[in-house]
Hints:
Blueprint: H1 3-6, H2 22-28, H3 34-40, H4 50-71, E1 77-84, E2 96-104, H5 114-119, H6 140-152, E3 156-161, E4 168-176, E5 181-190, H7 203-210, E6 223-232, H8 241-251, E7 256-260, H9 282-287, E8 298-299, E9 303-306, H10 329-342, H11 349-355, H12 362-371, H13 385-397, H14 413-423, E10 428-433, E11 437-439, E12 442-452, E13 463-468, E14 471-473, H15 481-488, E15 508-516, H16 533-585, H17 589-603, H18 646-658, E16 715-718, E17 721-724
Parallel strand pairs: 1-7, 13-15
Antiparallel strand pairs: 1-2, 2-6, 3-4, 3-6, 4-5, 7-9, 8-9, 10-12, 11-12, 12-15, 13-14, 16-17
Helix pairs in contact: 4-6, 8-14, 11-12, 15-16, 16-17
Amino acid sequence: MSALATEPTTVTKKNTPARATAESMAAKQRDISVSEFFAKNRHLLGFDNPRKALLTTVKEAVDNSLDACEEAGILPDITVVIEDLQPDRPASAKSSRYRVTVVDNGPGIVRKQIENVFGRLLFGSKFHRLKMSRGQQGIGISAAGMYGLITTGKPMLIQTRPKAEQRAHHIELAMNTKTNRAEVTADEETDDFPLARLRELSPAVRDLAAKGEYLSRREYPTGTCVSIELEGKYQRGRGSVDEFLELTAIANPHAKLTFVRPTRETAEDEEPTLLRGRAKAPEAAEAAPVAPGPEVTTDLGDLVIFPRAVNELPPETQEIQPHPKGVELGTLLQMLKDYQEATKDSGTLYKFLQERFCRVSASTASEFCEKIGVTSRAKVSDIEPQQAQELYKAFQEAKLAPPPTDCLAPIGVQQLLKGMFKGVRAEFYAASSREADVYRGRPFLIETAIAFGGELPGDDSARVIRFANRVPLLFQQSACSSFKAVVETNWRNYDLQHPRAGLPIGPLVIMIHMASVWVPFTSESKEAIADYDEIRKEMKLALMECGRKLGIYLRKRAKMKRESERRDVFERYIGEIAKAVSEINGTDAKRLFEALRAQAKKHTMIADQQLDDEGRRIKEEDPADQDGVIIVDVGGGAPPVGGQSRAEAAALKVAAMAHDESPSLIDTKEVPRSSTKGKAKAEPRKAASATKPAKPPAPPEPAPSAKPAGAKPKLRLINGKYVPVDDGPGLF
């Protein structure tokens, strides 16, 4: 081989800068702080535009307040105040500077944890717990403070009072994005909690504060107040702070929310609100044919109060251990290593399986040990990687009970109906709650509710309201599993228009709530639920259950409409019939008209039924007790009435009617019907022709009193009801 083949070829050019070497590249490498990463990629957290940034800030603070109050067993009382710090800005301005303040009556925060809670990203107590909660990642409120610092340069202000008899802590801090640590600029104690200036913002606020119903020290003995100045945009309509708080009040009826709007909003076209058709006055809600609902939201213009509908907290959730089918091989290896360090190499695999997993009993733990070829006394430190893989495979093949569901706190069917009735003005409401299911070893539960008709627009697509752990999801609807479940449900089966790959069309609002120990969001901004097959299937089943209820209601309503139109046709002609009969035989036309109208009303009585908000017929009294109504239970399953069955009571009632001496409908002698024995149906009588001689009348039938005492009256089933045969063919 020649020397030219062994020596590398170098190309030299004039004025060429020196290339980087491995040493120079290594000198430029450094750690990246998580806060520095999100400061450059704040759109991942929901701060991608001024309007959304304002909403995300309110959302994160309210979620933290609700979680803290519920965990401490306190009925939440939360006040949200948005102050416009640039009210004199020009009309062309696309954003403004706001101060967002959220005050709660929770347990407060101890002093030494304030810097970590509000000044560090990815710091919290909920990430490692398998327990339903709104916050999960420990990012939200710290990211809001970081966004405010970036856009305005102002630090976050925190006031907290853990004990009612002590003074509140007043702290101002700013996050250092290079180190992901908080820098405290002010630290003192104060008696000004809640802030007195918040009670002087507007006349409506001052009047409410004078009554002791707004930020009084009696209602806020302990709690936390967070204030953040930021660059934002306030505008009502869809995707606004107003809509978020309204939906939060629906999903959290145990919370009282007070919202103070800013003095000025951005002058743009207001988008249509999500819950159009909401009752505008308490009288409208009282007029609805349903049981009295919760208090009505009070809108005073610059002050909105969402009242507390129930005085009971959601059921307390319990933390659970991971389910064996929900762990992956790498996670299992890490859990074995952590248990080994915690027990100082003395822990056995038998105890590890029972202590670190749910639904693993003593016998099940012994079976797992046998499958990997070790005894129950084998220590975790002695488990080889190959045995750990066999243990993971045994987990997947084992038949284990699903994880417990006491870690979940669903809204509940009744609360869903109350919330929908409070927020949506409709004529039909239905709700469904599924049994808990499992995805990746984590339990979850799906709840749905629908509202139909009323004041909702009938020519638009249905509106979908999405919740995850009682938190409204307002953005990225098309990427959410709940939206896909609505689209894939066949709403045509329930008498609704449903275009392909779209939402159903009609006056319909659909609400979907997912409760889980870990909601699989598509991003850190927590705006959409990931599309797992197990989750989407449960959503579709819950929607189908509500759809069946809606279909029954719509078909019942359509039948009522048909019967009403049928009655209108009857009433259109019975006047002429009564007049013609009166001219023929001299019968009182008015009395005949009333009798015929009563018959028409009797045979179309379904048109007079009243349905409640769930499509059920409102029973004011037993129909069997009404005059002129007979109910015969052919199946004989009805309870006895007065020692007799309903069928026997109806037969006696018919027999008593046969002895009634009241004048007949038309004062003429009854023409007997010829008997057609052996035929399935009697031939109809033919009208006597005027050209043919009239036949002599047949001998009259014996009077009803001449019948044997034990004889039963003959009944015929006509239009679903039994009528006496002796009455002859009816008009209807």
